[in-house]
Design a protein that fits this description.
The protein has 214 residues and is of the alpha/beta class. It contains nine helices and eleven strands. α1 packs across α6.
């Protein structure tokens, strides 16, 4: 089943995030109070809804019961951000990420329930989309050319198997460069050691092959 992600606010960051997620096959709901912006993006996402995000009743009416993640992308609108975070958490959304314009706003959004705060100078819609689009991805880093580095959890079907059995280079076109586990992070990898559920892999992969890992 595809992940379902709602993006509240479609300014530069929110629009970039929503379009990247949609390109990766995620079911995306976008919500904004500007009908012109909604009309421009409506045919590129799963749902595009005009709503007043300072109004708790309007947010509740969106029907967030089946949404896996809400991204509150109105970094300059504190009132709308607070209301969106609070109502989303009250409605049982498992993960709420909120954009903040500064640390003070970030602290406020954390207090009202945000699970993660992102800052525009540190994040891009592209990077955030990559992390949100997969249950396995923890972080994403661009490197030279078409390559990227992923920090990721082992996929459920990898747990208990070693790197030789998994043959990740052939099957997923990815190279494991380090593994983090209970003993720390090491680039000296034992290919015969089975992967634990709590391990984290650092892998290099071509961006065009990311869909193989999802």
């Amino acid at each position: 089943m595809n992940k379902s992600i709602a993006v509240f606010g479609i300014g530069r960051f929110g629009k970039s995030l929503a379009l990247r997620l949609a390109d990766m096959g995620v079911d995306v709901m976008v919500v904004d109070n500007n009908p012109e912006d909604i009309e421009k993006i409506a045919d590129k996402v799963t749902y595009a809804i005009e709503a007043n995000l300072t109004d708790a009743d309007a947010i509740q009416a969106l029907g967030l019961d089946d949404i896996d993640t809400v991204v509150v992308a109105m970094g300059s609108d504190l009132q709308a951000s607070i209301m969106s975070v609070m109502v989303a958490k009250e409605m049982g959304v498992p993960y709420v990420m909120a954009k903040a314009s500064d640390e003070r706003m970030g602290a406020i959004l954390t207090k009202v329930g945000a699970d993660k705060i992102i800052y525009p100078e540190e994040e891009s819609g592209f990077r955030t989309a990559r992390v949100l689009a997969s249950e396995s991805f923890i972080d994403y880093f661009d490197i030279a050319g078409t390559l990227c580095v992923l920090e990721m959890k082992p996929k459920p079907e990898w747990i208990g198997k070693n790197l030789i059995e998994l043959n990740l280079r052939s099957n997923y076109k990815m190279n494991v460069i380090a593994i983090k586990d209970k003993s720390g992070t090491s680039s000296s990898i034992d290919p015969n050691k089975p992967l634990d559920a709590d391990a984290e892999l650092f892998v290099v992969v071509d961006k065009k092959d990311l869909h193989n890992i999802r």
